[in-house]
Amino acid sequence: MERSVDGITFEKIAQVAGAGSSTMLRNYAYTDVSPLTSSSYYRLRQVDYDGKATYSTIISLGKPQRTTDWLVSTSSPRHFTIQSQLDGDSRFSVLDVTGKPVFSQAVSTENADVVIPSLPTGVYLFRLTTKQGRFTVRQVVTAGK
Question: 45 and 17 in one domain?
Answer without folding.
Answer: yes
